[in-house]
Amino acid sequence: MADLRPLSVELRRIAETELNEVEERLPADLKALRDWLAKQPHLKVRQDDQFLVGFLRGCKFSLEKTKSKLDHFYTIKTLMPELFGKILVDEKSLILCRSGTYVRLPKPWGVDGPRLQLTNYEKFDPKQFKLLDLFRYQTMLSEQSIREDDHSNISGYVEIIDMAKLSLSFLAQLDFTLIKRMGIFAEKAQPTRLKGVHLINCPKEGVALLNLAKSLMPSKLQQRFHVYKNLEQLNEVIPREYLPEEYGGTNGRIADIQAEAEKQLLSYRSYFAEDAQYGVDEHLRPGKRVSADSIFGAEGSFRKLDID
């Protein structure tokens, strides 16, 4: 038997009807994936059952798609050492956690629905952090979810982004090359599936920049962006009960969510410290080597936006 966390009745139904998961076949599916990995001299990956089944579920149990996603996951991480090279549970990540800038809400959107994740840029201090720090923290939580969050793995996840008090100093940090790369990572490498990005309270200064950032995303992700003038418009799509108390809902208090997230992050300290041993060695890849250009395409010369 595969060493996996049991699913709820609702998620088991989704896994079987939408993801093509057959419980009795899981050991054979995992063995087929490990047999392939054993023949990939360039690729060193985590191989515990819960981690690998996250990729199988994210690819609807297509072995070929799972191979590609696993390879892209570690290839892109290796190609982006500035983001993935030193992922540590350090004081900076803990301070960012405590800020409440980015939280995963405890109650999913329905008993068999996606995980809801909330970003509030009012809580992000651009004098203390860079956009890269926030993305690094988000990838840490995302990797936790591969192993811990059955809703994310089976039903996907939804991002809610509150831009009410977006500062000009934050906008000045926007790195469009980084944003483009993160979009490609989300599509080609991340096993948990992004179901939607819902932006509220977007200031007029941010609309043009948002459109530019969105244009750099893969077309499939572009179609999943939705912009609302205010919270009331969002609640026509996502009922208020699924939002935290600070937004008039019943989905936890942000202070409590932060505290629980910090405990979980600390419990992953050794997990992330081990990450350095995993990755891709292009010198050992059979066939043609992969480069940043072949993954990300032409990126031009834009890096950051200059705002006076």
From TrEMBL:
This is CRAL-TRIO domain-containing protein. GO terms for molecular function: phosphatidylinositol bisphosphate binding. GO terms for cellular component: membrane. Residues 133-255 form the CRAL-TRIO domain. It comes from the Eukaryota.
